Automatic annotation (TrEMBL):
Keyword Transmembrane helix tagged: yes
Transmembrane segments: 35-53, 59-79, 106-133, 139-162, 174-192, 230-249
Principal location: membrane
GO molecular function: ABC-type transporter activity
Any single GO BP term: lipopolysaccharide transport
UniProt name for this protein: ABC-2 type transporter transmembrane domain-containing protein
Keywords, in A-Z order: Cell membrane, Membrane, Polysaccharide transport, Sugar transport, Transmembrane, Transmembrane helix, Transport
Subcellular location(s) of the protein: Cell membrane
């Protein structure tokens, strides 16, 4: 059922792509700068936090800005996908109660918005990568494979959390708080090799799915060593996640109109 609905959604992308872009445009239409405001968070995180924490760790700003830039943009894709999906079904209550029961459209709407944010911030990331002392073009080419894997995991997470959010409205508030901790726990403003091996921090990092999903994309681009554990972790996470999402969707998607 889940895969059938996704196939139908991908055949008719107009609804979720246009609705995602319209949400962004209407959000900023009253401001003087409009969607230019979308460039402010990447600027602050990449060059503001990058410069601040690079000095604390005795790393050049140019090198650390690329590390922070890739990590932050990928983290924001995952955070936006999961956090916004936990409230998307209640936000689209009118459509659902009117008979639009293909819930995958609403999950893809959120993923499309997160990708719009990502694409609009790419010029700032491109500057950070251009200034970095070492960027591997082979790693950038490899991102054409690893980035879809990251998005595939964002999709199944979006499905699960959208159903959880429809049943338990407090899930969005909970996830918002957890992602604050998740940002600190994930090596975005610090390097993974700064954590002592065998420490509690190292074990928590190794269990953190956000770390493995981000590192899978970022490490080849910046020429860092990618542990084989990350490949196994992401492969297992993807298979387990989609299996769980399919079961949960088949079992509970029918109850969403009642929950709303």
């Amino acid at each position: 059922m889940l895969f059938t609905h996704f196939a139908e959604s991908f055949k008719r992308p107009t609804f979720w792509t246009y609705a995602g872009w319209l949400d962004i445009v209407t959000k900023y239409r009253r401001s003087r700068l409009g969607i230019v405001w979308l460039l402010v968070p990447p600027l602050i995180y990449i060059w503001g936090l990058g410069a601040y924490f690079s000095n604390m760790q005795n790393i050049s700003v140019a090198e650390f800005a690329a590390h922070v830039g890739v990590g932050f943009l990928l983290f924001r894709v995952l955070m936006t996908s999961i956090n916004d999906c936990s409230s998307v079904l209640s936000a689209q209550q009118a459509f659902i109660l009117d008979g639009h029961t293909r819930l995958t459209d609403f999950v893809l709407l959120v993923i499309a918005k997160s990708l719009f944010y990502f694409v609009l911030a790419l010029p700032i990331l491109a500057v950070a990568l251009w200034a970095a002392p070492e960027v591997h073009m082979r790693g950038i080419a490899m991102a054409l494979v690893t980035m879809p894997v990251l998005l595939a995991n964002a999709l199944w997470m979006g499905v699960v959390f959208s159903l959880l959010g429809a049943r338990f409205p407090d899930v969005q508030e909970l996830m918002g708080s957890l992602f604050i901790f998740g940002f600190v726990l994930t090596p975005i403003i610090w390097h993974a090799d700064a954590v002592p091996a065998g420490s509690l921090q190292s074990k928590l990092m190794g269990l953190n799915p956000l770390y493995h999903l981000i590192e899978m994309v970022r490490a080849p681009i910046l020429g860092d060593q990618l542990s084989p554990v990350t490949f196994y972790y992401v492969a297992g996470l993807t298979l387990f996640g989609w299996s769980m999402a399919a079961v949960v969707y088949r079992r509970y998607a029918r109850y969403v109109p009642l929950w709303l």
